[in-house]
Write a structure and sequence with these properties.
The complex is a heterodimer of chains A (70) and B (380). Chain A is an all-alpha fold. Chain A has helices spanning 6-15, 24-69. The chains are: A mainly alpha (70), B alpha+beta (380).
């Protein structure tokens, strides 16, 4: 239970009276949901990093160009 | 009339699961796809040989197995085919180093009887072959009306050892082929990706064949490390997150390339196919919906070539990189193919390190990465 995604843990605590009463099947399901949460976080982190690096590359290329023409 | 088909799944815990009405047809060909580990260390293949004594056994190791709309790991899937009129031939050639991939293709093509050859299904070692050169070699030596599809075998996300089964035991360093003969056979194929290029276009300033050193005068390996960030430790597998889109001429349909290994000393990246100097490259990123659309598009093109009736068998070869990004949603791309082909067409396939097919029938055969490639078969 402890190694589930933080948001999912919070959602479980908010909505279930006794999280320990979950069946094994339900735990498997929550594990899958948690993995999906983590994957979306991961994907977004990769995209944000790409966006940042790409912006930097383009800014650099732009200032190089400007320097050439000035 | 037409083909008779039997499909089975082998898992470590259950062994072979035989489906209902599975009576042991007199198959001429059994396709088998499985994880490197499952193929090597288990009796799965011996049992298949015993069950279909007259059949050629042909297959390879994978980055995941496809049977029906299920995507499996560490299993073996099989599809036995009894053709009504089509005849088949099996051959394999051993690989010695990357320099010889063109010659391997030529040798494999020549080992097939040429007369009446309609189609060649090729499965190659996934780590020791330059797929582009292999395809060039095959195309140079085959009759012009014979078509080729296939793929590079996989080894999950490990990139350590890939195997090809061509009648004998599973072997690394091998390229195998099945030749299909006969007028009655209809074959369709289509290959589509669904990745979006992003960021600046970069010129390849230093490369040899399928080894890339520099883009715009700076280290390509460093560029990958920078973009991957904390995932750089996972190279070469995590390189699949950023395939490279290549074009040599203005307005050309680009091919997609992925990394199969890295060399820290040489500061280089080895790709599954050629990365010619002077070509323009862009990094690509996944777009989930477009990946699934790509699979459906490939199935649509492949089906259209067969005619009105649904195909009797479809062989799906999809890139392990798609599995890496779609993760739990991976079955959506196979369900997409099922939606296009209909419920009556048995599906078998695997996740590969490279796909071999023309984009559409009539186009030249090429090595692709990051695509779904659908080969459809029917006997009329």
């Amino acid at each position: 239970m402890e190694n589930l995604h933080q948001l999912l843990l919070r959602q479980i605590r908010r909505s279930l009276e006794d999280p320990n009463a979950l069946s094994d099947d339900e735990r498997v399901l929550l594990g899958l949901v948690s993995d999906a949460y983590e994957q979306f976080d991961d994907d977004r982190a990769i995209m944000e990093r790409s966006l940042e690096l790409m912006s930097k590359e383009l800014l650099d290329a732009n200032s190089d160009l400007r320097a050439t023409f000035e | 009339m037409g083909m008779k088909i039997e499909q089975r799944t082998w898992t470590r815990t259950e062994g072979w699961s035989r489906s209902e009405g599975d009576s042991g047809i007199s198959a001429q060909l059994v396709l088998v796809f499985g994880s490197t580990c499952a193929l090597k260390a288990t009796p799965a293949l011996d049992e298949t040989r015993a069950d279909y004594p007259g059949a050629h056994l042909f297959g390879c190791s994978t980055g995941g197995e496809i049977l029906g709309t299920q995507v499996l790991d560490d299993s073996v899937v099989s599809t036995a085919i009894e053709f009504a009129s089509t005849e088949i031939q099996c051959a394999s050639v051993s690989v010695k180093g990357h320099g010889g991939s063109f010659q391997v293709g030529v040798a494999l093509a020549r080992s097939m009887p040429q007369e009446g050859l309609r189609h060649l299904l090729v499965l190659s070692d996934g780590l020791r072959v330059n797929g582009s050169r292999l395809v060039d070699g095959l195309e140079s030596a085959l009759p012009t009306d014979a078509t080729v599809t296939g793929g590079l075998s996989g080894d999950g996300e490990r990139f350590e050892e890939t195997l090809v089964v061509s009648d004998g035991p599973p072997e690394s360093g091998t390229v195998g082929a099945v030749g299909f003969y006969g007028e009655g056979l209809k074959i369709g194929f289509g290959s589509l990706g669904g990745w979006d290029p992003f960021g600046p276009e970069r010129r390849i300033t230093r490369s040899t064949a399928n080894v890339l050193y520099e883009l715009d005068g700076r280290s390509a390996l460093d560029l990958y490390r920078e973009y991957l960030g904390e995932h750089a430790d996972g190279l070469p597998a995590t390189g699949l997150l950023f395939p490279l889109s290549l074009r040599t001429k203005e307005g050309e349909t680009g091919v997609v390339r992925t990394i199969i290994s890295i060399d820290e000393q040489e500061n280089s990246l080895t790709f599954a196919g050629n990365v010619p100097g002077g070509a323009y490259a862009r990094l690509m990123k996944a777009n989930f919906d477009r990946l699934v659309d790509g699979s459906m598009g490939a199935a649509t093109i492949s089906r259209a070539a067969i005619g009105e009736r649904p195909p009797e068998l479809a062989i799906l070869i999809s890139c392990v990189g798609r599995k890496l990004v779609l993760k739990q949603r991976i079955e959506e791309e196979v369900e997409g193919v099922r939606d296009v082909l209909g419920d009556s067409t048995p599906l078998i396939g695997f996740y590969s390190y490279g796909e071999i097919s023309p984009f559409v029938p009539g186009a030249p055969c090429q090595l692709h990465n990051q695509t779904m490639t659908v080969t459809t078969l029917s006997e009329s």
